[in-house]
User: Which sequence fits this backbone?
């Protein structure tokens, strides 16, 4: 959306209402100590296997709400170049990051803000840009491995998006 000269506003929102119709896992009872999963667990069968029934739980890594908002402002310079300010914010509501569905694996909602300021030379022959990603240094959990040791309840691994990063980029066109 062109709000005014040189300005662009953009955004998107997504709503996902998902759940597993059928999600059954069968594994050795030795690897399912009490509290390892939040799903109902059957009694062991003759082979020592239990059935974990996670049917009805939300899909992992699938927030109900997510989206992004962005703003770009281009200011033309008298020499034919321009300065561009770009800002973006991505967001997502809480979501489970692994299929054990325990409270430790429920990632909080987040907002991730990134910005850049770029000088583009006349005729786009070169540019120099300063940027910052994850401006607020938010801890954004993107996934995980669940319980990594069947005999130790509560031991979880997680994938975390990069912390605040910043830098300078430059480029040439030839």
Assistant:
């Amino acid at each position: 959306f062109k709000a005014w000269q040189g300005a662009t506003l953009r955004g998107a929102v997504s709503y996902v209402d998902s759940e597993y119709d059928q999600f059954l896992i069968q594994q050795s009872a030795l690897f399912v100590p009490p509290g390892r999963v939040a799903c109902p667990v059957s009694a062991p069968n003759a082979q020592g296997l239990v059935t974990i029934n996670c049917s009805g739980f939300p899909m992992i890594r699938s927030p109900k709400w997510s989206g992004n908002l962005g703003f770009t402002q281009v200011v033309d310079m008298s020499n034919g170049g321009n300065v561009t300010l770009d800002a973006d914010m991505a967001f997502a509501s809480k979501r489970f990051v692994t299929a054990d569905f325990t409270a430790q694996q429920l990632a909080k909602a987040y907002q991730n803000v990134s910005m850049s300021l770029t000088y583009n030379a006349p005729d786009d022959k070169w540019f120099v840009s300063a940027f910052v990603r994850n401006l607020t240094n938010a801890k954004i959990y993107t996934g995980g491995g669940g319980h990594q040791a069947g005999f130790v309840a509560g031991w979880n691994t997680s994938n975390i998006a990069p912390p605040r990063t910043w830098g300078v980029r430059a480029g040439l066109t030839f």
In short: The radius of gyration is 23 Å. The chain has a mean pLDDT of 91. The CA atoms of residues 25 and 124 lie 56 Å apart. DSSP finds no helices and twelve strands in the chain.
